[in-house]
Amino acid sequence: xxxxxxxxxxxxxxxxxxxxxxxxxxxxxxxxxxxxxxxxxxxxxxxxxxxxxxxxxxxxxxxxxxxxxxxxxxxxxxxxxxxxxxxxxxxxxxxxxxxxxxxxxxxxxxxxxxxxxxxxxxxxxxxxxxxxxxxxxxxxxxxxxxxxxxxxxxxxxxxxxxxxxxxxxxxxxxxxxxxxxxxxxxxxxxxxxxxxxxxxxxxxxxxxxxxxxxxxxxxxxxxxxxxxxxxxxxxxxxxxxxxxxxxxxxxxxxxxxxxxxxxxxxxxxxxxxxxxxxxxxxxxxxxxxxxxxxxxxxxxxxxxxxxxxxxxxxxxxxxxxxxxxxxxxxx
Amino acid sequence: xxxxxxxxxxxxxxxxxxxxxxxxxxxxxxxxxxxxxxxxxxxxxxxxxxxxxxxxxxxxxxxxxxxxxxxxxxxxxxxxxxxxxxxxxxxxxxxxxxxxxxxxxxxxxxxxxxxxxxxxxxxxxxxxxxxxxxxxxxxxxxxxxxxxxxxxxxxxxxxxxxxxxxxxxxxxxxxxxxxxxxxxxxxxxxxxxxxxxxxxxxxxxxxxxxxxxxxxxxxxxxxxxxxxxxxxxxxxxxxxxxxxxxxxxxxxxxxxxxxxxxxxxxxxxxxxxxxxxxxxxxxxxxxxxxxxxxxxxxxxxxxxxxxxxxxxxxxxxxxxxxxxxxxxxxxxxxxxxxxxxxxxxxxxxxxxxxxxxxxxxxxxxxxxxxxxxxxxxxxxxxxxxxxxxxxxxxxxxxxxxxxxxxxxxxxxxxxxxxxxxxxxxxxxxxxxxxxxxxxxxxxxxxxxxxxxxxxxxxxxxxxxxxxxxxxxxxxxxxxxxxxxxxxxxxxxxxxxxxxxxxxxxxxxxxxxxxxxxxxxxxxxxxxxxxxxxxxxxxxxxxxxxxxxxxxxxxxxxxxxxxxxxxxxxxxxxxxxxxxxxxxxxxxxxxxxxxxxxxxxxxxxxxxxxxxxxxxxxxxxxxxxxxxxxxxxxxxxxxxxxxxxxxxxxxxxxxxxxxxxxxxxxxxxxxxxxxxxxxxxxxxxxxxxxxxxxxxxxxxxxxxxxxxxxxxxxxxxxxxxxxxxxxxxxxxxxxxxxxxxxxxxxxxxxxxxxxxxxxxxxxxxxxxxxxxxxxxxxxxxxxxxxxxxxxxxxxxxxxxxxxxxxxxxxxxxxxxxxxxxxxxxxxxxxxxxxxxxxxxxxxxxxxxxxxxxxxxxxxxxxxxxxxxxxxxxxxxxxxxxxxxxxxxxx
Lengths: 331, 889
Ligand code: SF4
Ligand code: SF4
Ligand code: FES
Description:
The complex is a heterodimer. Chain A is mainly alpha-helical. Chain A folds into two domains: 6-69 and 77-143 and 305-328, no CATH class; 149-300, no CATH class. Chain A has eleven helices and two strands. In chain A, a hairpin with a 2-residue loop joins strand 1 and strand 2 (191-199). In chain A, helix 2 (42-66) packs antiparallel against helix 4, helix 5 runs antiparallel to helix 11 (306-330) and helix 6 (152-171) packs antiparallel against helix 10 (276-304). Chain A is elongated and about 95 Å long. Among the domains of chain B are: 522-687, Jelly Rolls; 706-888, Alpha-Beta Plaits, CATH 3.30.70. Chain B is built from 24 helices and 40 strands. In chain B, the strands form eleven sheets. In chain B, strands 3, 4, 7, 8, 9, 10, 11 and 12 form an eight-stranded mixed sheet that branches. In chain B, strands 18, 19, 20, 21, 22, 23 and 24 form a seven-stranded antiparallel sheet that branches. In chain B, helix 2 packs antiparallel against helix 4 (219-226), helix 13 (500-521) packs across helix 14 and helix 17 runs parallel beside helix 19 (665-687). The longest helix of chain B is centred in the last third of the chain and has 23 residues, at 665-687. The termini of chain B are far apart. Chains A and B meet through helix 3, helix 4, helix 5 and helix 10 of A and helix 10, helix 21, helix 22, strand 38 and helix 23 of B. Bound molecules: iron/sulfur cluster (2 copies) and FE2/S2 (inorganic) cluster. Residues 765-768, 771-773, 791, 808, 810, 812-813, 841 of chain B line the site of one iron/sulfur cluster.
C-alpha cells in the first residue's frame, strides 16, 4: 500500500498522537520515579497489553484474507480498512513494545528472544512496505509488456510459437524436412480446436542465418521446451501444472547485448534485407521475454518477504502467549 | 457474386463471370447495378400491377444495408417473389390516398387495381400467393425446391408470349411488362407445384419429428395440406440416419429435403461455416464440418439452423428456460405459438406470420400477455428494458420526464438509522454510487400530466431501448381503460425484424419517435410549440451510423444542395462522435461528443448575420465575426465520425436558422458562445496535445496523444470500467480471487489488458453505453439489469453459442466449459436443455448486498477502481497537466 496517499493521513496523525502520548507518559514516569521502570509498572504493563492486543489483531488479517467470502456477507470492514489498520497499528506497536521491554536490555532470554522475533517480524513488514512503495512503480515504468505472473510460462511458449511461424514464413522451413508441420489453433467462438497441416512456404533467399540463430539462440530463450510450446497451441491440451524452466544464459538476457546481437544478425542477413521486419518482430518478442524475466525477479522481491513475515509472526504469537503465561506467574 | 449479383468477398475475381454460392453451384446472372435502384418497372402478378425498382439495396438478416468498400449500398436484383411481397405489404400499409410508401427505398409503390379484378380491395392479399420452401426473405435464394414456380408472360410488340418453362419466383428478376401467374390463377402452375410438393413429401416421413411435437409446424406438411396434395403416390424412401450427438439439436436426415436453408443460415446469417452439403443424387445430404457428427463438429449450438429448417430434420432437444417473466405485476400469461399465428389483430398476425414456429417453441414463453390496470406503468423512463410491447387491446400513454439519477437511498433516521449508517460505514462503500443513468433525450422536463402521445391497439412500444441497450426514453402508462400487451423479448423482435414489412414499419416508428423525443428535449427547441415541433419533425432526418463512418468531412461545404447528407447541423441522440482535424499529413483528435450534444453548427453560424437570427448585434452581445475569423465561413472546421453506433437527428441549415431565430435570446447567446468556445479550444487542442504517461520504453515520437488513445480504447463509452492503478497494485491477484469466489470459482476478470497512462484497463465488462454484446443472442440470455447498468447473462437461458463473446470488442465475455452438463430451468412442455458451455461476464456483483463489485472491495491496496470512462480521462488528464506543469516550472 502506498503511504503517500491522502487516505493514510488520519491514520498517520492518530498513530503519531498515540505514540507521542505513550512516549511522554513513559518518559514522565521514568523521570518522575528516578529509576528504570520495572516490568510490573503501570506504563510497561499497559504498553505490553496494548502491544499484545495489536499483535493479535495484526494476526487476524490472515483469517480475514482466507475468509474473504465473509466480507461479502457480514459487516467486518473493508479489506482496505484492515490493511490500513494492520499497517499503522503495526507501526505503533514498535514504540509500545520497545517501551514495554524497558527499551534496553530486554530482560531474560525469553523476553530477549521475544523481542528479537518481534523486531524481525516488524522489520520484515517494513521491508515489504518499502518494496510496495518502490516496485509497482518500477514495474509500471520498466515492464510495459508484463503479464500475469502465473501465466509467464504460457505466454512465453506462445511467443515461441509465434516466432516459429515468423521464421517459417521467412526461411521456408523450420527443421530439416522441406515441409513443416504447423499446428494452427482455430478458435470458434471461444471453443478452441487444433488442426495440423503440412505446408511448404516460399523462403526469402539467403535468410538461412535467421533459421540457424533461431534454432541455436532465440527459440531456447523464448521457451526452452518446444513440446511444451506446442502443447499450448491447443488450449484444451494445456498441462495443468506447467513445467518450470530456467531462462538459459543467453546474450538476449540483457538489453544491451541483445541489441548488439540483433544488429549482428542483421549484418549476417545483409543479402536478405526483406527479412529485417521479421528480425525486428522477433527482437520485440525477445524484449518482452526479457521483461518477463525481470518481472519474475521483481515479483519475488515484492512478495518474497511474506515467506519470512508470516512464519515469524506465527512464532511470535506462540512465544507471546508463553511470555504472558510466564509473566502471570510473577504477578 | 451471390445468385442475385451481390459480390461475395470470399470469392476471387476469376469467378465473376458466373455467380457462385458457397456450395459451388454455378448460376449465370448479371450483376445488379446501382442505377437499377432507381429504374422502375411495372409487373403484373395475378392481375395486380405493381411498380417496383429493378434492384433494391442488399441487407443483412436484420435489415442493415450491406455496403461496399467505399461505403456505397450494394444493390441486389428485385425478384418476382419480392414484388409479390411488396404487393402483399402494399395492401397492409396502404395509405388513405391509395399509395404506399416503401421506406427502405424511399419510393412510392402505386398499387393499381385492374378493372377485371373481381375481388375486394383490402385484405384478400394478406398472404403472398407464391409459396416458398427453400427460400426465406432474409436469405440469398438458391432455387432448389421449385415450390415457388410461376408462369411468366411478356408483352412484346403488343403480343403476349408465355415462357415455355415455369420459373422460380424466388430467384427470377422482375422485368418491365412482365405478367406473372401463380398457383392462385394458373392451373398449370398449381399442378406443377402440387407435383413438386408431392415428390418432396414422398421423401419425408409424415408426420415428421416436428409435426409430432407440434402439429402444423412442418412447413412442407403445411404446404401439402394447403395444396391438398394428399398421400404421395410415390414409394417412400427407406429411413436415413438419425444423429443425436448434439446436446441441443437432433438431426433426422430422413426428414431433410435439402432445401439448404440451414446451410445458408449457418454460413451467411451466423457466419459459423459449419454446415455444408455432401455427396450427390440419392446419397446427397447435409453434413457438419468434414462429415462429423453434429455434436463432434465445430457447431456452436446457436440453433439458427434448427430455427430455419422447414421440416423436422433439425429439431431442438430441449427448450430454454423462461423464468424472466416470473413474479411480475400484472402477471405474465403464456401465449402459445398458435395464438400468435391465429391472432385476431391482423397487424400482430401479420408480424408473426413469417416467424418460424420452431423458434417460438424453442423460446417458449418469450412472448407473454400482460393486462395492465388503468394507470399502471408498463415501462418506466430511465430503466434498461430488454422487452418490447405490442398493444393488443386498450390504449397506452407516453410521458417524458426529467433526467433520472440513481440516488443511494439512506433516509432512515433515529437509532436504526444511526446503526444502519454505522454498519454501512464498516461495509465496503460502493465506489460507483450516485452514477447517472444516461438519459440522452430528456434534458428538459416535460409535463408529467400531459402525455406526449397516445398509443392505440396494434402499436408497438419499448422497442428502442430493447434494440439499442440504452435506457427507456419515456414512461408508458396504461390508459383510462387499461391495456393488454404482448410483451416480447429482444430475440423475438430480432426475428420479427427479418420480415421486411415489419422492419420498415418499426424503422418508421423509431424514426418518428427519435426525432420527436430529441426535438422536444433539446434546449435549442425549448421555445417551439407543439405544432412547430411537429412541422420541424417532418423536415428533420433521422440517421444511423456504424463505427468509423464519417458524418461530416473537414473543409466540405455546410450548405450543399448536391450533398444533402452533409447539409445542416446534427443532434446526437445516442453513441459517440469523434471530432478530428487534419493538419499537414496527420489527424489530431480535438474532442468527442456524446449523447445530448450537437455539432455542425459552427460552419452554419459563420454564414448567419445577427438580424437573420432575429436580434441586433448589441442585443446578441457576441460578435459573429469572431466565428468567421477563427474558421473558414460555410466550411466544416473538422471531420466528425462515429466512434460506435451513432443515432443522429439532422436539421437542414434553413431549419436551424429558423429554430435559432425563434429561440430565446439566452439560448441564441449560449449556442453562439459555445461555438466560439469550441473553436478556441479546438485551436488550442490542435496545437498541444498532452502525451500519455512518460514510459521510457515507448518510442516518444510514436506515442499517441492522450485523447486518441482514450478514444481508440473505446473508453468514452464505458460506464463502469475496472482500472488498476499500477503504481499501487502489488499484483497480489486478490481482485481475481475475489471474483472467482463470488462466481463459483470461475473468475470473470482477467488482470491483463491495455494500459491507459498508469492504469491497467483490466479485462472485465465495462458496461458500455452501446453494449454490442447484446446484439444477436439467439435466446436473449444476455441483457442489462432493469434498474442498473451491468450486463447480466442468464445462466438458465444461455445455450453457449459464443455470439456475445464474439461481439464484445474488448474480449470481456468468456466461454466457460462446464464440467457437468448444465440443466436449464425446463418449461412445462419441454424437456430441460443441456449445454456444454456457458458465457460468463462481469455482472458487477449485482447479487451481492451493497452491489459493490467484489474485485474493487477486495483490493487491499486501493488500486482497483471502477469508474466511468470520461472520469478516467479527467483523472489522467489532470495528472498529466500536473506533470507537464511541474516539468515546465
Ligand atoms: S461485455 Fe463487452 S460489449 Fe458488452 S457491455 Fe461489457 S465491455 Fe461492452
Ligand atoms: S449469452 Fe452469449 S453465449 Fe449465451 S446464448 Fe446468448 S449469445 Fe450465446
Ligand atoms: S422457394 Fe423458390 S425454389 Fe424453393
